[in-house]
Amino acid sequence: MFNDELAWIFSEMGDMEEIEGNRWESLAYRKVAANLEGLGEDIREIYKRNELRKIDGVGAAIEKKIQQYIQHGKIDAYDRLKQKYPIDFRNLRKIQGLGPKKIAALFVNLGVTDIESLKSAIIGHKVAVLPGFGERTETNLLKGIEVLSTVGASRVLLGRAYPDIEAIIAYLNSTGLFDNVILAGSARRMRESIGDVDILVTSSRRKEASDAFIKSEYVSSTVVAGESKVTVNLKLGITCDLRFIDADSTGAALQYFTGSKDHNVHLRDLAVSKGLKLNEYGLFREDSRIAGKDERGIYESLGLEFIEPELRENTGEIDAAMKHELPAIVNFKEIKSDLHMHTLDSDGKNTLEDMLLNSRKNGLEYIAMTNHSTSLKVAHGLDSQRFNELNARIDEISSRLSIPVLKGVELEILRDGSLDLPGNSLKEMDYVLAALHQYVSQDRKENTDRIVKAIESGYIHGLAHPTGRLIGSREPYNIDLDRVLEKCVENHVFLEINGYPERSDLPADIVRRMRESGVKFALGSDAHSISDLKFIRFATAIARRGWLTPEAIVNTLSYSAFRKLLAR
Prior knowledge:
Elements: H1 2-20, H2 23-37, H3 43-48, H4 60-72, H5 76-84, H6 89-92, H7 100-110, H8 115-123, H9 134-149, E1 156-157, H10 158-174, E2 180-184, H11 185-188, E3 193-194, E4 196-202, H12 206-214, E5 219-225, E6 229-234, E7 239-244, H13 250-258, H14 261-273, E8 277-279, E9 282-285, E10 288-291, H15 295-301, H16 317-322, E11 337-338, H17 352-361, E12 366-372, H18 384-401, E13 405-412, H19 423-426, E14 431-435, H20 444-455, E15 462-463, H21 481-491, E16 494-498, H22 508-514, E17 521-524, H23 536-545, H24 559-567
Parallel strand pairs: 4-7, 11-12, 12-13, 13-14, 14-15, 15-16, 16-17
Antiparallel strand pairs: 1-3, 2-4, 5-6, 6-7, 8-9, 9-10
């Protein structure tokens, strides 16, 4: 979290310096922001070792600013720029098509500082008349605001929030004031976005425990501090409830506060039908508690299989549990590979060696390296010659580190459905992941035909982020997913589940609908830095929420078994 806060400050300084016309300062701040996001450890630890200057892009001036932020929680140069430009860059930059130059023009000409003032300017048709905008841009910006609103201002993406949540739980455990600390709520169900955090705790020193939580570095303010519940605003932008529970009711409380609401209502109705009463304190027959100390006991006492948290959405899981027909969904420990990542050879932030070493630290057996192909200029895509050079380095580093690596590509599907690299180059690749990034039409058939042509080419193994959505900034592409699915099954092409938080693509409801089609799914983090490698966990969470078993996921195969599958 600390790295992200500091990276955002430098990113915003880059935007403001661009408005000022200071191109080199802007580039310097953006470079250090990108490198801070890619760090594999808390920058405060690097500061303690007096090694800030070892970070690429950190010279004497930027080092002083980092030191000031670590020591005093502020950067004077940032505060001065912010007084001049009181702009909500964080949220305005989420709107597709809004970069620093356009934000600057909106601020200078119309006084736009946030989404509300932008919306007012659009409704008043003041934006279209600005140089470089026009009616089409105005319409697109309004649509971008509407798409952003679907996430909700009070929600954050789980993949972005989860490291902070884990850090909070680790901190609470480290205080010695809690006997038990358990994550509940939608974060435990691994929903793609969350509106708050629920943490259940037991403690014999409630007042001291509450104070320790309230005074932690993760909390920005206190909403309420009661004897049984403390509610705070977290710095990550949402609230957190810390609930004190009795040890004997741990299972019942965990079941109740994990939710979902609809799942709990169905479960309580089932209890009533059996002459029982279920609440956060236990499962009761009249005044006698028959279960509640652990979660499994609750479900078993109701005649159900244990239902994993990710399945608790009241979408058929209770009926399946009654019939003992729940699938044995994949466990994260069964995932042996990450089949989508990038290095600084295209648009990543870390070296090939860094990505391999950190993948191994995360417990993976092998990975696929899938840098972008040549036509995606914005991502510095590689042509055949650069891929040849990269693949030679992959062979050398993979051998030296004893980490199996599949030489791969995230391959552009061109406007006519042809592929971005020649066939002889693709034959040299171990793993070809095709993707639609550019020239996407509003026409459903046109988009679908492009994808189907690529699938039927005989060169690709998987289809990356199939719907193309970016949560909060871009709606899914207009494509016929059923036809795409049919062609993937016919041609033995995998469908990717992309764990990058803003993508979370395929969505879990679509995964579940497709799970009995015979298609195989491939999980990828889409990591662009060391810190992104953790996103393979969220791809796995989508698979779990989509009711997938290990057999449906190619990442559960050993390296040798996966190579054999690719060969077939």
